[in-house]
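Q: What would this chain look like folded?
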Amino acid sequence: MFEWWFAWHGLEDMRYRIWDPEDHFYARQQMREKVLDPKVPMREKTWGTVHIVREDIGAGPDDLILEFRYPHELGYDESKVGTKDCAAMMCANGHGPVPGQGVAAVMTHMVREIEGGIELRSRFWIGWGLVNGQVVKLVPDGVRVPVEVPMGLFAHNLKEFGHLATILPDLYKEKRSFLKTEEKKMGKDAIKNFVIGAIVSAVLTALVIGLIIGKKGVPDSVSGNVIGNVVTAIICGGLSGVATTITLYKKLAK
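A: My prediction, written as C-alpha coordinates:
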Protein backbone atom coordinates (compact mmCIF):
# COMPACT_ATOMS: atom_id res chain seq x y z
CA MET A 1 0.00 0.00 0.00
CA PHE A 2 2.82 2.40 0.91
CA GLU A 3 4.70 1.61 -2.30
CA TRP A 4 1.49 2.01 -4.32
CA TRP A 5 0.93 5.45 -2.81
CA PHE A 6 4.33 6.74 -3.86
CA ALA A 7 3.85 5.39 -7.39
CA TRP A 8 0.30 6.72 -7.69
CA HIS A 9 0.38 10.21 -6.17
CA GLY A 10 3.00 11.72 -8.51
CA LEU A 11 0.85 11.20 -11.62
CA GLU A 12 -1.76 13.91 -10.91
CA ASP A 13 -1.50 17.16 -8.92
CA MET A 14 -4.70 16.53 -6.98
CA ARG A 15 -3.35 13.26 -5.61
CA TYR A 16 -0.50 15.06 -3.88
CA ARG A 17 -2.82 17.77 -2.59
CA ILE A 18 -5.10 15.34 -0.74
CA TRP A 19 -2.06 14.11 1.18
CA ASP A 20 -1.84 17.50 2.93
CA PRO A 21 -4.43 19.93 1.52
CA GLU A 22 -2.96 22.93 3.34
CA ASP A 23 0.72 22.50 2.51
CA HIS A 24 0.96 20.40 -0.67
CA PHE A 25 0.56 21.93 -4.12
CA TYR A 26 1.90 19.35 -6.56
CA ALA A 27 4.36 16.50 -7.01
CA ARG A 28 5.02 15.75 -10.70
CA GLN A 29 6.60 12.48 -11.69
CA GLN A 30 9.19 13.03 -14.44
CA MET A 31 9.47 9.36 -15.43
CA ARG A 32 5.86 8.34 -15.96
CA GLU A 33 6.87 5.61 -18.42
CA LYS A 34 8.60 3.66 -15.65
CA VAL A 35 5.74 4.07 -13.18
CA LEU A 36 3.19 2.95 -15.77
CA ASP A 37 5.27 0.05 -17.08
CA PRO A 38 3.44 -3.13 -15.94
CA LYS A 39 6.73 -5.04 -16.08
CA VAL A 40 8.23 -2.90 -13.30
CA PRO A 41 7.42 -4.30 -9.81
CA MET A 42 5.41 -1.98 -7.57
CA ARG A 43 8.35 -1.82 -5.15
CA GLU A 44 10.62 -0.34 -7.83
CA LYS A 45 8.22 2.01 -9.63
CA THR A 46 9.41 5.02 -7.61
CA TRP A 47 13.05 4.01 -7.15
CA GLY A 48 15.25 5.81 -9.65
CA THR A 49 12.63 8.42 -10.59
CA VAL A 50 12.36 12.18 -10.03
CA HIS A 51 9.53 14.27 -8.57
CA ILE A 52 9.27 18.02 -9.05
CA VAL A 53 7.50 19.17 -5.88
CA ARG A 54 5.97 22.36 -4.53
CA GLU A 55 5.08 22.32 -0.83
CA ASP A 56 5.19 24.38 2.34
CA ILE A 57 7.14 22.91 5.26
CA GLY A 58 6.81 26.01 7.40
CA ALA A 59 8.55 28.87 5.61
CA GLY A 60 6.07 29.32 2.78
CA PRO A 61 5.62 27.50 -0.55
CA ASP A 62 8.91 26.25 -1.89
CA ASP A 63 10.06 24.28 -4.96
CA LEU A 64 11.92 21.04 -4.46
CA ILE A 65 13.47 18.30 -6.57
CA LEU A 66 13.22 14.80 -5.09
CA GLU A 67 15.54 12.29 -6.72
CA PHE A 68 14.32 8.91 -5.49
CA ARG A 69 17.16 6.43 -5.17
CA TYR A 70 17.50 2.69 -4.89
CA PRO A 71 18.13 1.82 -1.21
CA HIS A 72 21.54 0.30 -1.91
CA GLU A 73 22.72 3.70 -3.17
CA LEU A 74 22.40 4.95 0.41
CA GLY A 75 24.07 1.89 1.91
CA TYR A 76 20.97 -0.16 2.78
CA ASP A 77 20.74 -3.91 2.23
CA GLU A 78 18.15 -3.92 -0.56
CA SER A 79 17.50 -7.64 -0.17
CA LYS A 80 15.77 -6.96 3.14
CA VAL A 81 13.12 -4.72 1.56
CA GLY A 82 9.89 -6.70 1.42
CA THR A 83 10.72 -8.81 4.48
CA LYS A 84 9.59 -8.72 8.11
CA ASP A 85 12.51 -6.41 8.86
CA CYS A 86 11.50 -3.82 6.25
CA ALA A 87 8.17 -4.01 4.41
CA ALA A 88 8.92 -0.98 2.21
CA MET A 89 11.50 1.77 1.81
CA MET A 90 11.68 5.08 -0.02
CA CYS A 91 14.95 7.00 -0.24
CA ALA A 92 15.49 10.37 -1.86
CA ASN A 93 18.09 13.03 -2.45
CA GLY A 94 16.32 16.37 -2.09
CA HIS A 95 17.45 19.83 -3.17
CA GLY A 96 16.18 23.08 -4.64
CA PRO A 97 15.58 23.68 -8.36
CA VAL A 98 19.20 24.83 -8.66
CA PRO A 99 21.62 22.29 -7.11
CA GLY A 100 23.85 23.95 -4.57
CA GLN A 101 21.31 26.62 -3.66
CA GLY A 102 18.93 26.32 -0.73
CA VAL A 103 18.86 23.59 1.90
CA ALA A 104 19.50 20.04 0.69
CA ALA A 105 18.65 16.83 2.53
CA VAL A 106 18.84 13.07 2.20
CA MET A 107 15.62 11.33 3.17
CA THR A 108 14.61 7.79 4.09
CA HIS A 109 11.14 6.43 4.87
CA MET A 110 11.24 2.87 6.21
CA VAL A 111 8.07 0.87 6.85
CA ARG A 112 7.86 -2.09 9.20
CA GLU A 113 4.73 -4.18 9.62
CA ILE A 114 3.44 -4.44 13.18
CA GLU A 115 0.32 -5.86 14.73
CA GLY A 116 -2.66 -3.82 13.56
CA GLY A 117 -0.82 -1.79 10.93
CA ILE A 118 2.62 -0.44 10.11
CA GLU A 119 5.35 1.55 11.79
CA LEU A 120 6.94 4.35 9.75
CA ARG A 121 10.44 5.51 10.54
CA SER A 122 11.52 8.69 8.75
CA ARG A 123 15.06 10.04 8.74
CA PHE A 124 16.31 13.33 7.30
CA TRP A 125 19.97 14.29 7.01
CA ILE A 126 19.59 18.03 6.52
CA GLY A 127 22.50 19.74 4.85
CA TRP A 128 23.71 16.50 3.27
CA GLY A 129 23.37 15.23 -0.29
CA LEU A 130 24.25 12.38 -2.60
CA VAL A 131 27.12 13.43 -4.87
CA ASN A 132 28.82 11.00 -7.27
CA GLY A 133 27.44 8.05 -5.34
CA GLN A 134 28.61 9.34 -1.96
CA VAL A 135 26.62 10.97 0.84
CA VAL A 136 28.52 14.16 1.65
CA LYS A 137 28.06 17.21 3.87
CA LEU A 138 27.06 20.19 1.74
CA VAL A 139 26.86 22.80 4.48
CA PRO A 140 30.21 24.61 4.81
CA ASP A 141 32.12 24.23 8.05
CA GLY A 142 31.04 26.83 10.59
CA VAL A 143 27.59 27.28 9.00
CA ARG A 144 24.56 26.00 10.89
CA VAL A 145 21.19 25.08 9.46
CA PRO A 146 18.61 27.42 11.05
CA VAL A 147 16.73 25.60 13.80
CA GLU A 148 13.44 26.56 12.14
CA VAL A 149 14.23 24.21 9.23
CA PRO A 150 14.30 20.90 11.16
CA MET A 151 11.46 22.07 13.43
CA GLY A 152 9.29 22.91 10.41
CA LEU A 153 10.17 19.66 8.66
CA PHE A 154 9.40 17.65 11.82
CA ALA A 155 5.99 19.27 12.20
CA HIS A 156 5.22 18.88 8.48
CA ASN A 157 6.21 15.21 8.47
CA LEU A 158 3.94 14.44 11.42
CA LYS A 159 1.07 16.32 9.82
CA GLU A 160 1.27 14.80 6.33
CA PHE A 161 1.75 11.20 7.43
CA GLY A 162 -0.80 11.53 10.21
CA HIS A 163 -3.36 12.62 7.63
CA LEU A 164 -2.25 9.96 5.14
CA ALA A 165 -2.86 7.27 7.75
CA THR A 166 -6.51 8.32 7.92
CA ILE A 167 -7.18 8.34 4.17
CA LEU A 168 -4.85 5.76 2.62
CA PRO A 169 -6.61 2.48 3.58
CA ASP A 170 -9.92 3.50 1.98
CA LEU A 171 -8.20 5.29 -0.89
CA TYR A 172 -6.17 2.20 -1.68
CA LYS A 173 -9.26 -0.01 -1.74
CA GLU A 174 -11.05 2.40 -4.07
CA LYS A 175 -8.23 3.48 -6.40
CA ARG A 176 -5.67 0.67 -6.44
CA SER A 177 -6.91 -0.57 -9.82
CA PHE A 178 -6.54 2.91 -11.37
CA LEU A 179 -2.78 2.43 -11.73
CA LYS A 180 -3.36 -0.69 -13.82
CA THR A 181 -5.91 1.25 -15.90
CA GLU A 182 -3.31 3.96 -16.52
CA GLU A 183 -0.72 1.31 -17.43
CA LYS A 184 -3.09 -0.11 -20.06
CA LYS A 185 -3.89 3.36 -21.42
CA MET A 186 -0.22 4.12 -21.83
CA GLY A 187 0.28 0.83 -23.67
CA LYS A 188 -2.61 1.57 -26.02
CA ASP A 189 -1.30 5.07 -26.69
CA ALA A 190 2.10 3.60 -27.55
CA ILE A 191 0.48 1.19 -30.01
CA LYS A 192 -1.57 4.00 -31.58
CA ASN A 193 1.53 6.14 -32.04
CA PHE A 194 3.39 3.17 -33.52
CA VAL A 195 0.62 2.44 -36.01
CA ILE A 196 0.36 6.11 -37.04
CA GLY A 197 4.12 6.23 -37.53
CA ALA A 198 4.06 3.03 -39.61
CA ILE A 199 1.28 4.38 -41.85
CA VAL A 200 3.07 7.71 -42.37
CA SER A 201 6.29 5.85 -43.15
CA ALA A 202 4.52 3.61 -45.70
CA VAL A 203 2.90 6.60 -47.41
CA LEU A 204 6.17 8.52 -47.60
CA THR A 205 7.95 5.46 -48.97
CA ALA A 206 5.29 5.03 -51.65
CA LEU A 207 5.57 8.70 -52.61
CA VAL A 208 9.35 8.51 -52.90
CA ILE A 209 9.13 5.38 -55.08
CA GLY A 210 6.47 7.10 -57.20
CA LEU A 211 8.70 10.12 -57.73
CA ILE A 212 11.65 7.94 -58.71
CA ILE A 213 9.57 5.93 -61.17
CA GLY A 214 7.98 9.08 -62.59
CA LYS A 215 11.35 10.76 -63.10
CA LYS A 216 13.43 7.91 -64.50
CA GLY A 217 10.76 5.66 -65.90
CA VAL A 218 10.71 1.90 -65.62
CA PRO A 219 11.24 -0.52 -68.51
CA ASP A 220 8.05 -2.23 -69.56
CA SER A 221 9.65 -5.60 -68.94
CA VAL A 222 10.10 -4.97 -65.23
CA SER A 223 7.60 -2.23 -64.42
CA GLY A 224 4.88 -4.70 -63.66
CA ASN A 225 7.09 -6.60 -61.24
CA VAL A 226 8.40 -3.48 -59.48
CA ILE A 227 5.04 -1.82 -59.07
CA GLY A 228 3.42 -5.11 -58.14
CA ASN A 229 6.05 -5.76 -55.46
CA VAL A 230 5.64 -2.25 -54.02
CA VAL A 231 1.86 -2.57 -53.84
CA THR A 232 2.14 -6.06 -52.35
CA ALA A 233 4.63 -4.86 -49.72
CA ILE A 234 2.39 -1.98 -48.67
CA ILE A 235 -0.70 -4.19 -48.44
CA CYS A 236 1.11 -6.94 -46.53
CA GLY A 237 2.72 -4.44 -44.18
CA GLY A 238 -0.62 -2.80 -43.51
CA LEU A 239 -2.36 -6.11 -42.81
CA SER A 240 0.48 -7.19 -40.56
CA GLY A 241 0.27 -3.92 -38.61
CA VAL A 242 -3.49 -4.28 -38.18
CA ALA A 243 -3.15 -7.89 -37.00
CA THR A 244 -0.40 -6.95 -34.52
CA THR A 245 -2.44 -4.03 -33.20
CA ILE A 246 -5.54 -6.18 -32.64
CA THR A 247 -3.46 -8.80 -30.82
CA LEU A 248 -1.80 -6.26 -28.54
CA TYR A 249 -5.10 -4.54 -27.76
CA LYS A 250 -6.61 -7.86 -26.70
CA LYS A 251 -3.66 -8.57 -24.42
CA LEU A 252 -3.81 -5.11 -22.84
CA ALA A 253 -7.54 -5.40 -22.28
CA LYS A 254 -7.13 -8.47 -20.07
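Residues 148-216 form the longest helix (69 residues).
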